[in-house]
Design brief:
By secondary structure, this protein is of the alpha+beta class. Helices cover 65% and strands 8% of the residues.
Length: 509
């Protein structure tokens, strides 16, 4: 017994007392382990109960309206990294909760439209900014602050900005009286409807199609109708040319069977053959509903185009002068003391490139305006020297215009279907995608609840563990202190067992 005690490892704790500084209490590790073992089940049960309670509450709140429904969407197209929409305008992420989108989603889900504003107010859109981007932007600011006199290169770096390409959609639905499963269904519908909204706004040019479809040539004289058709075909050709320039795959629509080159050739054929043929017939035969009105129309067009011509000439002269006097920034690159390797280069300038583009456009507008003036002068001359065409000629022109209108409308529809197919499957195929859809799956809900409860559970479990260890240690220390005091008073362990109240008796004495 004595040998075991001598081999026992002890923890020495010195208790200082105002009266007896020499008192020392020796606590054996075995005493601490006995207390740990004694209270182990209490600690274990408390830990399990607390952990289960917090996790259960977390899962409960996850499945109720107090926990928002979340989703993650992504945009991937040229310009989004600069905060631009596919059409070049500023991108507004709050368009994800556009009232038209929410209304369509509520209709799809068969829900009351009266909660539209509550739904809209409950949706929050937050951009996701990667950590490496934050570090990069911070570094840019440090470079600028340390640059000498705001060096242009440092300013250019600082001008580099970053816009989010991923967004977290959070739907807090407590004010809508919806169940969580209904909120998940509605948010899914909103995200899917936004895809239609996105293609409608940034795919085929809807205003262009609406304007061409609303053409009422019957309300105008024949010459005016020809100009309207010419303007419509020019806009349609320009739109198709832009698509053909962007298309690097020579896309052929599976819906219409046309490429953009095919559509452009068809538009040119209608313009060069059908339209010009009718226009020539009207001009040669002087076919008109009202000669005086057409004459006034020609004179007005010539006067207006002449003003435009003067404006384009002044604009072109101004641009040429600005380009000639524009000086690009120079960059000097110095070698290691050797003048032969010192170089000078010129920085590319966005402003200079813009002026060149504006000059080209101004030249094109001026050339087209001159052609139009000459064209209307010829018409006006022919109108003045010939008699008005007969009724039969008017009837023929009306029949030809009707056929031309049908061809233009058909072309507009072909362009619309081809462009829509191109945007959906090629150009903007991956422009918008739902990375993480909202879900009410039991497995996902439980995972979310556990993830939410993880931090508070770990924190409380650590606190309970510290209380358990501290309580066991102090209980062991109290027991060892009592044993030492009894030993000093000459009370053996057997006496203590026979007279457990001796300690209290001594205290009373």
């Amino acid at each position: 017994m004595a040998e075991n005690k001598t081999e026992e490892r002890n923890v020495n704790v010195i208790l200082k007392n105002d009266e007896h500084h020499e008192d020392e209490v020796v606590i054996s590790l075995s005493a601490v382990f006995r207390k740990l073992k004694k209270y182990f089940m209490v600690w274990f049960l408390v830990s399990v109960i607390v952990g289960g309670l917090i996790t259960g509450l977390s899962i409960f709140f996850t499945t109720t309206s107090s926990m928002p429904v979340r989703a993650l969407v992504s945009f991937n197209y040229d310009g989004i990294e600069k905060g631009k929409s596919p059409d070049g305008t500023d991108f507004d992420p709050n368009s994800l909760k556009n009232p038209m989108v929410i209304e369509a989603a509520l209709t799809d889900c068969g829900m009351d439209l009266e909660i539209l504003e509550d739904v809209r107010n409950g949706i929050e859109v937050d951009g996701v900014v990667p950590e490496d981007t934050i570090s990069r932007l911070t570094a840019y600011h440090n470079v600028f602050e340390n640059a000498t006199n705001g060096m242009p290169a440092a300013q250019a770096i600082l001008d580099e900005s970053w816009f989010s390409t991923q967004y977290i959609i959070e739907f807090t639905f407590r004010d809508t009286d919806l169940k969580r499963s209904e909120a998940v269904q509605l948010l899914n519908a909103v995200l899917n409807e936004y895809k239609n909204y996105f293609f409608k706004n940034y795919g085929y040019n809807e205003p262009l199609g609406s304007a061409l479809g609303a053409l009422k040539y019957e309300d105008y004289d024949y010459a005016e109708a020809i100009d309207m058709f010419s303007d419509s075909l020019t806009k349609l050709r320009r739109y198709v040319n832009n698509l053909a320039t962007d298309d690097t795959t020579r896309f052929r629509s599976s819906v219409t069977g046309y490429t953009f080159a095919d559509l452009r050739d068809t538009i040119n054929t209608v313009s060069d053959l059908d339209l010009d043929l009718i226009s020539s017939y009207i001009t040669v035969n002087n076919v008109t509903k009202d000669k005086e009105r057409v004459q006034a129309y020609y004179e007005y067009r010539i006067e207006n185009l002449t003003r435009n011509k003067k404006e384009y000439e002044e604009k072109l002269a101004s641009l040429e002068a600005s380009i000639d006097s524009y000086v690009k920034d120079d960059i000097y690159i110095f070698g290691n003391g050797n003048d032969d390797i010192n170089t000078q280069t010129t920085m590319a300038s966005e402003q200079y490139d813009k002026m060149i583009t504006q000059k080209i456009n101004a030249q094109s507008d001026l050339s087209h305006t001159k052609q139009q003036i000459e064209y209307y002068n010829q018409r006006l001359t022919a109108l003045r020297r010939t008699t008005v065409g007969s009724t039969d000629k008017k009837k023929k022109v009306e029949e030809d215009l009707k056929k031309l209108n049908e061809k233009v409308l058909n072309l507009t529809e072909l362009v619309k279907e081809t462009a829509d197919d191109y945007y959906r499957n090629v150009s903007l195929a991956n422009a918008y995608s739902i990375l993480v859809p909202p879900s009410n799956d039991v497995k996902t809900t439980v995972k979310t609840g556990i993830k939410t409860a993880l931090l508070p559970v770990v924190g409380l479990e650590l606190v309970i563990l510290m209380v358990y260890l501290g309580f066991s240690f102090f209980k062991a220390m109290a027991e060892e202190t009592r044993k030492k005091r009894l030993a000093k008073q000459g009370v053996t362990k057997d006496d203590e067992n026979q007279n457990p109240d001796s300690d209290s008796t001594e205290k009373s004495e």
